[in-house]
Amino acid sequence: MAQTKVKNYEEMMYKWWANIRWFFLVIIFSIGILQVNQLQETYPIYIFIFTFLGLTIMNILFQIQIIKQRQFFAILQILLDVAYATAVVHITGGFHSSFIWIYLIGVITASLTVENMGGVITGLISTAALTALLLLYKYSLLTPITETNAMDTPSTTIFLISYAGLFTGMALIANFISDLLKKLNTQTAKFEDENIQLQADLDTLNAGLRNLEEENEKFENLSKVAAKISHLDHDINTPLCVISLSVTRVKEAAAKYEDEKLAKSSNEISSAINDITKLLQKLQVLKTNELVKKIERELKNET
Asked: 0.70 cut: is pTM over it?
């Protein structure tokens, strides 16, 4: 269950980042409009079409990645983000492009989808891609589509160091936050599972306690009955003594009148009285039981 909750949390985080990626599309559109208004010569229309269409495709691929959630798709998404960012920087001015920050989309995406410094590695790859682009400009192997002034070596070095620091710093921050949130979510899911298990154990204990209370109530009822039974010997002894005396007289009369049938009946009655006396003696054990004594005291207090 904990793994399911962690997976649901990752899906929620990916969906949140997908919404941010779509928000970046609005930002790029706004920056593009500002660039058109500020420059005397606007960018060719295909540049904007490529930029907007490219980011739209990248965002759609990320939506597919949310559904698939495979490491291969995550790596492919990151590489495509870096390649797309490099292409956008090239067609929008190279060194002087207003969209160099777009590399951060791939960096943050890697921080969220690839654990263990995935964002930092992507930041280094982005820096390498930007460096390769600048080297191509320097050796005239590639020319920016829009006219820009060339940068000297010190400026280029500062430029690369600045963006390398930006990419790496953002990657470290994003990686730290992502890993921290994942660990917290994992621990939270684990604690929730343990809480559910403890609640189930508590319910089991409560059920057992209720059964014990029911058994205890039955036992107390039986004890009350036993306490009442323990007094039956006293109640039975009095009439039994009367019967014994009567049997004695019957025996005397049977002997006097030599009535065998009467003598036989008196003997049978005497035998029955002896059996009853033995049973009454067994009841004496109940009187010595501490629980029965306690119930007797409670019954006396109630009366």
From this structure: no
